[in-house]
Structure formats: structure tokens, C-alpha cells
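Researcher: Before we compare anything, I want clean individual predictions. No alignment, no superposition, just each chain on its own. First chain goes here; please echo the sequence and then give the C-alpha cells.
Model: Echoing the first chain and its structure:
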Amino acid sequence: MRWSLRTAALAGFALLALGAEAAAQGNATPPMPPPRPAALATSPQINPQMPTLPPGVDPMVADFAPDKPEALPPASRAQMHKCGSEWQKMKASGAAADKTWLSFAKVCLVK
């Protein structure tokens, strides 16, 4: 315990001495960065082209997706399992490359 207090006191005195030495040199503020090259002094102004809407279209009315996702038709658990197994087989064989589960399930669950 006594050794750690002695070490801490010595470290504190060393920091105080270094701080006083730096203040005596007048280095209280860091140096300024070098000036910028003339080529970088001015940046080109970029004016992005805003997309134009056809006349009569209100820009504040957006065509957002519905709040609720599309619902699948009601089906029994067995039918859902059958369609799921069929979909997995189609994906494994590559036959479902151009289809989505939602479009497939809408047709399969109605059967």
C-alpha cells in the first residue's frame, strides 16, 4: 500500500513539472495547419437535376406500399404443409427461379 502511494505521488509531481515546463515554453496552443493548395480552395458548385413530374401530379402524394402485407387465402394446416413441401422441392430443383413464395402460395392454397 505504502509503495503504491509513493509511486502515485512521484508520478503526480512529474506531471506537474512537465506541465510547468510546457507552459514556460509558450506551447499552450497547437500550431495551425498548413494552408490549402490553390486548386482545392474553391470547390465546384453541383446543381443536381430534380426529376420533373408530369403535369397534374401532386408531388406530395406518394404511392406507398399498403400498411398490411398481402394475406394468403385461408387453408388448413395440412394444406399449408403440403404447399410448403412442394415449394421446397421446387426451390431445390430450380423450378421456382422466377416465382415468389407469395405468388405460389396464393395458387397452391386455393387448391
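Researcher: Okay. Second chain, same rules.
Model: Second chain and its structure:
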Amino acid sequence: MNDIRPAQVRNLEDRLKCRVVGRAEIIMDIFARRAKSAESAIQVELVQLRYILPRLKGLGGVLSRLGGGIGTRGPGEKMLETDRRHVLRRISTLKKKLVKVQKHRETARKSRSRELVGAVVGYTNAGKSTLINTMARDDLFVEDRLFATLDSYTRTVYLGERRKCLLVDTVGFIRNLPAHLVESFRSTLEEICCADFIVHVIDISAPDMQSNITTVNNEIKSLECSNKEKILFFNKADLLAYNATAASVRNNHPDAVIGSATGGTGIDDLKSRIIDIYTRHQQKINY
């Protein structure tokens, strides 16, 4: 689905006599409400400004009618240029701030270079944060709504016998997410590429489960992270009214783990899978 164009917005607003908001704007508004850290706040504002900028140009035809005589520029055109300059200056400032934040992230990433790191990914609202909470026995921000997590949080998970790993919570994916939104969070999504393995959390109770899986896989492929070792965790099994879906999942994904982050089922199986990766990781760094 393509986002609504500026000309379409104007035509609809003229006919409907009300404000018209496109899908991308709704998503950006949700992002802005969910941004908690300095990095995510900067990223969201950059997204909004980059979205606005070409649409300011689109207003030129309307504003030009406010112009003066031949060879002069009217107040509407001057206002347009002032707005564009302000937006461009703000974008430049935010880019510089983001570079500083990203350098800090890179320093933190290097400090854990010998640790086993797993990136927890999934379609939005699949239960990624809840899973990490359960495994780390922590109190990471969790809410049953879209894009509840925009930031990459890292938590330590103890695997027993003095073994541990780090799990990174990432922003949830969504179908047909505008390209400029994905690009704006690329630095955050790089945590996936820098991880040693991926835990793909899937809402097994979702009616469009397979489509959600495809969306996440495509995004991981676009990040060039498809070669990472991956564990599939089919979450929310406690919400299934019957076991037909679970049986189908087992047939199609025999190596997957089925469970419930809320109920705690499947967690031991998931940890066992991670321990296997941990053992190989230790052998590699000690070699």
C-alpha cells in the first residue's frame, strides 16, 4: 500500500471538509508517542521532518497565488522558503546529534564483543519485550499495543552453570512500513546484524501469522542478516483455542520452540537452544 500523496490529501480535505491523515503519518504519530530514549526521539523527529520537506514543496502552487505582481515573490512563497530553511537546519542539527549517540552505541557494542549476544526480533506486538522480561526476570517496558518498544534495550539472561548471554530488544516490524521509516531506524536495527544469533518471536495466535513471518524475514534479508543463526519462538500458545495451529507449526518448523512468554512455557526449551549456541560461541572465542 502506497502512502497518500499531498495532492490527494488536499482534494480529499476540500471535499470532506476535515483533516485527512495518511497511514505513514499515523505510524509516525505512534512512533513519536512511544519514543523514550534520546536516540529514538531524534530518529522520530528526523522521520517527521523528512516526510514534511517534500510536502512543503508540494504547497508551492497554492502559496504562489499569494504572490505579488510580475517578477515579485509574494508572502506565501517567502513563507515556504523560510519553512524549508528551518526544516533543513533542524535536520542538519539532528543528524549531528544522532552521530554522537551512535558513537556511544558503537562503544557499548565493542565493550561486549566477547559476550554472546542475541537479537530478539518480531512483528510488532508479538511479545518480544515480555519474552525478554521472563527470561531475564526484569521489568522491561511492556504494553499490549503496537510499537510499544522503539529502543534497543539489552538485558542479561542467565543460562545456568555460570553461563549467560545478552538479549537485545528491537523495534517491531510492520507490513508495508514506508521505506523512510525503516531507514530512519537503521542504526537501531544494526543491532540485529551485530548479534551472534536471532530469536524470532512469532504470535502463534495471530490470524495473519504467516504473513507476519514473511514481513520480518524480508526485513532481516534487507538488512543482510539472513545468514545469522535463528531460533523461532512461537509465542502466545496459551491463547490458542485448539491445537491444530500448533500441530501445523510443528510440522512446518520442526526446530521451532512453541510456548508462552506470559505463562513461562517453552522458556526452558528456548534456553537449551541458546546454550547450544553458547557452547559453540565459547569454543570459537577460545580457539
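Researcher: What stands out in the second chain?
Model: Residues 112-286 form a domain with the Rossmann fold fold (CATH 3.40.50.300). Additionally, The chain has eleven helices and six strands.
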